[in-house]
Amino acid sequence: MITTIDTNTALVLIDLQKGVTSMVKDQPIAEVIEKAAQLVTAFRAAELPIVIVNVNPTGASFTKIRTQLSLTIKGPQAALAPDFLEVIPEIKTTKEDIFITKKAWSAFCKTTLHEELQNRNISQIVLAGVSTSIGVEGTARDASEYGYNIAFAIDTMLDRVPDAHAHSIKNIFPRIGELGTAAEIIEKLPRME
After folding, report:
1. pLDDT band, very low/low/confident/very high, at 23 (cuts 50, 70, 90)
2. pLDDT digit string, tens, across residues 148-182
3. Can you tell me the distance from the alpha carbon of 152 to that of 164, in angstroms, rounded to the nearest whole number?
């Protein structure tokens, strides 16, 4: 349950990019994207910051560890698709948005995200995106370490592994933040006077 949304809250969208969302098969990705777009619209109306995070796995440390080698494309075909990093068209961005490219699971790892949020006096983040158990959970764990209040928009996230998604939502997220739907979060957003 979402008890409150701080006055200084940012929406953080994780990996809603063409290359990642195209990997989610047999999942209701269209519904997730639609609700994420609703959050974007509501945050813009409330004049709250929006952080657009994408992942560029090229040369990322996590792609070099033994458990990931079989998942990594090797050789000349290793280049990403030309539009892999592009934000999906349903998420309308503006030049005022904060753009973060990560090379790790967490959007805080070796990026300027924490500094960007601190410069805006952000005390809370609303998290949404793909994949629940990787990018969203990794970012949430670091956000908790930095002391941010966290709200999870649980109907705006998805995972290629449904059991991993369920585990994050049931066992991890309630320990570090509050859970609610996009509609519940929108209802609690501070209203512009």
Report:
1. confident
2. 999 999 999 999 999 999 999 999 999 999 999 99
3. 16
Strand order in the sheet with 50-55: 98-102, 50-55, 9-14, 124-130, 149-158, 178-180
* Residue 97 identity: D
Retrieve residue 79's tokens.
């280049």
Contact (Cβ atoms closer than 8 angstroms) between residue 101 and residue 54: yes
DSSP letter for each residue of the chain: ------SSEEEEEE--BHHHHTT--SS-HHHHHHHHHHHHHHHHHTT--EEEEEE--TT-GGGGSGGGGGGS--SGGGSPPTTTTSBPTTS---TTSEEEEESSSSTTTTSSHHHHHHHTT--EEEEEEE-IIIIIHHHHHHHHHHT-EEEEEEEEEE-SSHHHHHHIIIIIHHHHSEEE-HHHHHHHSPPP-
- Among 95, 172, 104, which Cα is nearest to 132's? 172
